[in-house]
Amino acid sequence: LAARKEGYRYFMEKEIYEQPRVLADILTGRLGEQAVRLDELEADWLRPISSVTLCACGTSYHAALTGSYLLERLARVPARVEIASEFRYREPVLDPNGLFVVISQSGETADTLEAIKLAKAQGLATLALCNVDNSSIVREAERTLLLRAGIEKGVASTKAFSAQVLTLWLLALYWGQARAVLSGERHARELTALRAVLNVMQVQPRVHERLHRLSKRYLHGHGFFFIGRDLFYPLALEGALKLKEISYLHAEGDPAGEMKHDPIALADAELFTIALMARSTFYEKVKSNVEELSARDATLIAITTEDFELADDIIQIRPYDHPMLEFFEMLVVVQLLAMEIAIRLGNDVDMPRNLAKSVTVE
Ligand code: G6P
Question: Residue ranges of the SIS domain (predicted)?
């Protein structure tokens, strides 16, 4: 078993480091000079579709949320997101001309499988984003985009999540092309960013070392807030989920703008706030949200390119002018942070207590 970890301490660590290779596989054959290609879906199949519903559980749900921002922005198609276990029981009203997208690493999650069956029964077009070919969900779906992430062993999903997000980005762009809704300049900017994404996900030894050192300061306290806006809100949720899964510490992800409506009631020095402060995305607004927390004495860890004097700790990231590049750069940070904290606490990060890799019962 040790050999298969290829020198890494845990499968989770290996899988975090593997992400650039996974993203390269996903882009193979799909990233042209002028356009994105997705051979699995013809433009004619997508064109008549009037809306999209994304449905998933757990980490895959966070990818779905991220995808909803991308699909509305790049394809200009109305997008909504559903947690599979809620969706199937609430007599949902669906757009008969809509596309129902399910996202699942395993392809076997019971609630997600039932959700796609329900959408199919109502006559919607269906698409699965799955990591396992010939899984139950793939067999149910009309169309599939396989994730190409390779086998994921760590119960805490890392490379499957980045694969889901990248695949959704490609889908959004491809759909935007099919509907001709993007300006030439905007389209070119997306393609340039896609070409840069592999480098961004390369773990920088400097950053990993920093997180390793930093982790010892954050083993106690009464909780963690991960906050961000826009695309960085689903990332905040995912950062909190990673930490909870393997460290067993309490964490929550919140939209930074919602702070004042309740989470701020918890703020004090024992509350660790991880602020996802993306230069590309409403930086000043997030900054003022963070300042409010600081005024309540919250302990602040800022993930940012900027200097931020109120932060107790800064995790310096590289500057990018595209939100998705900042997203992937910060994703690596939150994954490694969760892992380093959990390792210091003496936990088996590959086999967290009470959790299963795939949940095939309701
Ligand atoms: C379980 C796993 C999570 C995963 C979720 C959905 O809870 O522990 O890591 O995100 O199921 O799984 P799926 O295979 O459908 O993506």
Answer: 42-181, 214-352
